[in-house]
Amino acid sequence: MDKQKDIAKSIRRASIKKNWAMFKQSKLGMIGIYIVGFFLFLSLLQPFLFVTGIWNKGIYDPVVGYSEQFQDFLVVDCPKEYPTEKYKSRTDCPARNEINIRTLFYSDAQVGETIYQNLQPAPPSKKHILGTDPLGRDVFSQIMEGSQVAFILGLLSATLGVGISTLLGTIAAFYGGRVDAYLMRQSDLILMLPTLPLLFIISAFSELKVWHLAVVLGTIGGLGGSVITIKSQALQVKVKPFVDSARITGGSRMNILFSHVLPNVAPLALLFMVFSVTGAIASESVLSFLGLLNIDMSWGLMIYLAQVEGYIFSGMKFWWLILPAGLSVTFLAGGFYLVGRGLDEVFNPRLRKR
Amino acid sequence: MKNILEVKNLCMSYSTIEGEVEAVKDVSFSVKEGESFGIVGESGCGKTSVAMSLLQLQADNGKITNGQILFDGKNIVQLNESELRSIRWSGISMVFQGAMNSWNPVVKIGEQIREAIREHYPDKSKDENTNKILELFNIVGLDSSVIDRYPHELSGGMKQRAVIALALSCDPKLIIADEPTTALDVVIQDQILNEIRKVQEVLGLSLIYISHDIAVIAEMTDNMAVMYAGSIVERGPTKEIFSNPRHSYTKSLLESTPSIVGDKVKLKSLDGEPPSLINKEPGCSFAPRCPYKEESCNPLREMELIEINNEHYVDACNAGKL
Amino acid sequence: MTRYIIKRIYQLIIVFFLFLVTSYVLFDAIPGDAFQSLLLNPNLPPEAYTRVEELFGLNQPLYKRVILYIQNFFKGDFGYSYTRYPKTPIELIAERLPRTLMLFAMVNVVSFYTGFLIGKILAWRRGSKSETWITVTSVFSYTVFYPWFALMMLWIFGYKLDWLPIGKFLYPETWYDSPYTSDEIFVSLIKYVALFSSVQILLFIFTRNIESISKRRNARLASFITLIVLSFVYWNSGDFVNQKIYAFNIAYHMILPVFTVTVVAFAGTALLTRTTMMEVMKDDFMLTARAKGISQKRIRDRHAARNALLPVVTSFIFTIVTIIDGSVLTETIFSWPGMGQLILDSVLQEDIPVAMASFSFIGIFALIAHFLADISYAYLDPRIRIQSQG
Known about the structure:
The complex is a heterotrimer.
Chain A: H1 2-25, H2 27-51, H3 57-60, E1 70-76, E2 98-100, E3 114-118, H4 139-175, H5 177-192, H6 195-205, H7 210-223, H8 226-238, H9 241-248, H10 253-289, H11 299-308, H12 319-347
Parallel strand pairs in A: 1-2
Antiparallel strand pairs in A: 1-3
Chain B: E1 3-16, E2 19-32, E3 36-40, H1 47-54, E4 62-71, E5 74-75, H2 81-87, E6 92-95, H3 109-120, H4 126-140, H5 156-168, E7 174-178, H6 186-203, E8 206-211, H7 214-220, E9 223-228, E10 231-237, H8 238-243, H9 248-255, E11 305-307, E12 313-315, H10 316-319
Parallel strand pairs in B: 3-8, 3-9, 6-7, 7-8
Antiparallel strand pairs in B: 1-2, 1-4, 4-5, 9-10, 10-12, 11-12
Helix pairs in contact in B: 4-5, 5-6
Chain C: H1 2-29, H2 36-40, H3 46-56, H4 62-75, H5 89-124, H6 129-143, H7 146-160, H8 182-206, H9 213-236, H10 240-280, H11 284-291, H12 296-321, H13 323-334, H14 339-349, H15 352-380, H16 382-389
Helix pairs in contact in C: 1-15, 5-8, 5-10, 5-12, 5-13, 5-15, 6-10, 7-10, 7-13, 8-9, 8-10, 10-12, 11-12, 12-15, 13-14, 14-15, 15-16
């Protein structure tokens, strides 16, 4: 009996190796893995830096850190009409080392004087690789924190969603009849509800922290259209001869479900999971951007802050407030999607090059 | 009579993750006008690869590494894609293995045949093409209503006949039939074989017939070649080979076919399997399984065909034996 | 077949019913209601709030309200908007719908067509360098952070370069003395686009019978050019001469949103097409097509792409369903007052009649679209067509 288990284990190990070799063949999958790996590294880097003391938590904490950078500012009075000889357009005044007198509410400084002020948000420097945000917090640290949030949220909601839809899908395929009809109508119902307004409503009556949002996204995703797709896949497995032979040899329905149908549906489910992570990250960013979530720090939140404080349309002047966060969302979501495409090639032989 | 096709020292290999697979090694044969030529061998011996390379239809990872294919005197190995396209179907056409899947499921049969005709005869009108197709259907024994049917509406035998009609549609000079009846039952097989023979006689076509069923080859072909592990081991007139098989493999092949006449004899079969074609070892590839091994056998000697009789070629190893 | 349809419709009604109840309960769960502002207004006595509550029946228990709403719903009475009194939800929807429809119909058609084209080409060029980086670019345009991207586009084209208008769908100055309302223009624009597309499709079907390929292509090109010329005549005749300016105004405003959404949306179709085509390309009939000597382009278009069309069209129909859902973000960012904004506002302000009406609209829309998807699936795949008839 043990020998059989050993043999089974070694077969599994060999097939995993083979799958990995195939996955490596897919250029898209490899690019995706590198991107995901990079962000994983970032999310692990932050606690490492804090724990080992390389970073002082007081300064670098993404939520409550505060970093002061004082420098001299020249006080100017921005003209009403543009372009003038000094400034080309409205966004050029005040320039990097200048400050508009109209924003000084509690100082007696006059135009032409220099004052010593705190620079917020600060452009990238040696101390802060990506600069600081309007509240003096290090942007790079925020990116790393956001990376952690993205991973936790994405993987949690994806696993939950796929777990639910795989279970429901296989049950629907296998038991058929009323159960099937009920489950199909249920997912129709979920599909009918518009996602974004639904999330608005939910955010209105329950406080959405990371875990709550993950559960909500996972449930909605899991009960929706993916049930139908997994059900049709399970149906294809159900009509295969080996299922019949399993039944004849006396396997109970549950047994067949777990040891035969599920492994064949697993590749599709895995694929779904990876693509759900993409969706989860995107949804979270959009919801944060609209100010509906109660998460301490995430990429969407960074852009929300930038917009609320009016930095979005300042163009390239405050790029570090907008670009890193936006690009991170794009690339991590895209990275997972590429990994999904790579997995697709492993599981679906028709998609391979040879 | 002129040679419509001459294959000289054809070599083809596929590059895979595990290595280079030498599927076709040093294959040479020729087909005359109006003649039917058979290629017989086990699964995996390279017969389909030879067929594919005649039309340069091999898979993306397959490459012709050496040799010439002279069709009507012209070497078609070096031709570029657009020149090949004009030869395909109007010069050489093919009936594939498993014709069931040869058809595009969302396009009607008639339209698919029309497409081929349109490519090679662009100036014909719709009616002319329709008449041509009906003629072809007549020859292969299909009802005229098949033109407007979709592939899944036809039975296996009908699809096969339609494939033959498709192959004939551009008046080719040479047809390659790759196991055209493998998936059909014996009755239909007989019908199809008769159709093919009739068509060949009526239209004067040359035919290359590929099969693993030696009985069919015996019935259908004038000349034949026996392939093993990517090379031809024996080649010559069919009658000659059947009455006087020389190569050990050919002999084993014939001995393993049951006969209705005579006493009940125990079937002889060959032990072992064909060799792996990846990074093949040099020398005689049949040596490990050869039941006629002798002391004088040198397994490391490369295969080489020598003429022993009128047009009857055998690998040198067996040339000396009886 | 008919038994199946009847069963489906019966199930549909039950689902819709549940949908109504669920939506209402959800809306009710949101703390507060539409009339909170009355409490804050110092000029109104607090009795005003309770009076209004009574008038609108909001002080009754939940289950009674749900039953009442559903009864009225099936009678056709959708109530009055709480925040935009005395407009009814139907009026509001009728006003907003053409705008969203116009915008997203264009987006869907353009992105579907572009996506299919690009996906087709990508799958055909499998393994080449260009295929890899184009696919990766498509993936990133698919996952790009949409609000950020839209704002960037707005900033670049509307502000920095000043090529395109920033918001809304018209210039008030131009429309100041206009004898038309925006709704009329929208409706006539939609009619024109519908007319154009249907004529084009009809021409397409008629020219299928021409045997020679090059002649067919010429015929289609000629007819397309004729259509363009006819469009000129159409817009310069009769009443349309006057409408022209306003119509162009709207079209001009549409360019940026359509472009932005298309960039994000085409990638989904492109990637799906690419995957499906890659599967199809391994089928045996592709070999036959190659053997027949047809050009690569024709094989790609008439054999591979035609077979890949099925899942793509199905997903297209499902995308249409999410038009309104997807429009929420776009309309907010581009200040395009359409259905998306309507839903958003009504949900945030707790304008229950309008919110319920919009949700119901989306729900019915979704159900019909599913139904259409099933039918079109049967039509496009002849194998299923025969089976479902038999």
